[in-house]
Design goal:
Layout (H helix, E strand, L loop, with lengths): L1 E12 L2 E12 L3 E5 L6 H9 L6 E8 L2 E2 L9 E4 L11 H11 L5 H11 L15 H13 L5 E5 L7 H16 L3 E5 L3 H5 L3 E4 L5
Helix pairs in contact: 2-3
C-alpha cells in the first residue's frame, strides 16, 4: 500500500507567498488533480511533493507498505514529468534512459529501456538525437524518463503540453497503468477534462 500525504504546506520565495496551508492525502491506486490559474503555484507544489524542493512550512510524507520513506529518498521513488525538466539533447532517448537506469541502479536496463520507449511510442526513434525532436516528442521522452523506474508516485505537471491526440492517449494510458498497479498519481493541470478524470482535486488558487 502506497500513500502520499501533505499537511499544512506553505512555500514562499523571499517576501512572496506562493501558497500556504495545503493539505492532501492520496492512496495508491488513486489520483489527485492540482488545479489553479497560471502562476498560482502548481509547479512549485508538485516539486515540493516530489521532494526536489523543500517547503517553507508543513510536511510531506510518503509511505510504502507501512514504511515511511526518508525525505531524501522520496525523489528516487517519484517519477516527475514537466515541461521545464531538461534532457541531454545531444543524447538519444535510449542514452538518456540508460543514464537514468545506471544512476538508479535499475536491473534489466536494456529491457526496461526498450519497453519504456515502446510505451511512449518512440521505439523507432530511440537512437536519434533528442536535439532533432519536436516539442511533443521531447515531452514523450520526459514521460519515458519518469516511467522507466516504475515509481511509487507518478507526478505529471501539464503532462499533455505540446502533445497531439496520440500523445494524449499515451499519457492517459500511463496514468491508468499506474493506478492499476497501486501507484499514487498527481496531475497538475489547467485542463478541466484532465482534472475531472482524477479521483480528487486540490486547488491552489486561493492559497497564496
Amino acid at each position: 500500500m502506497t500513500e502520499l500525504s501533505a499537511s499544512g504546506l506553505g512555500k514562499r520565495f523571499g517576501g512572496r507567498i506562493v501558497f500556504r496551508d495545503i493539505s492532501l492525502r492520496v492512496e495508491g491506486g488513486s489520483s489527485v488533480a492540482i488545479t489553479g490559474r497560471n502562476g498560482s503555484g502548481k509547479s512549485t507544489l508538485v516539486r515540493v511533493l516530489a521532494g526536489v524542493l523543500r517547503p517553507t512550512r508543513g510536511t510531506v510524507s510518503l509511505s510504502v507498505d507501512g514504511h515511511v520513506i526518508p525525505a531524501e529518498q522520496r525523489p528516487f521513488r517519484t517519477g516527475l514529468v514537466a515541461p521545464y525538466l531538461n534532457l541531454y539533447t545531444r543524447f538519444s532517448p535510449a542514452e538518456n534512459l540508460r543514464f537514468i537506469a545506471r544512476a538508479r541502479s535499475l536491473p534489466d536496463r536494456e529491457g526496461r529501456i526498450a519497453a519504456t520507449l515502446e510505451r511512449v511510442g518512440l521505439s523507432d526513434r530511440g537512437g536519434d538525437l533528442v536535439a532533432t525532436f519536436s516539442s511533443g516528442m521531447i515531452q514523450r521522452v520526459r514521460l519515458a524518463a519518469a516511467l522507466i523506474a516504475d515509481p511509487d508516485v507518478l507526478i505529471l505537471d501539464e503532462p499533455t503540453s505540446n502533445l497531439d491526440e496520440a500523445g494524449h492517449e499515451i499519457v492517459r494510458r500511463a496514468i491508468d497503468d499506474a493506478r492499476q498497479a497501486g501507484r499514487v498519481v498527481v496531475v497538475a493541470t489547467n485542463d478541466a477534462r484532465e482534472a475531472a478524470a482524477c479521483d480528487a482535486q486540490c486547488s491552489v488558487d486561493a492559497r497564496g
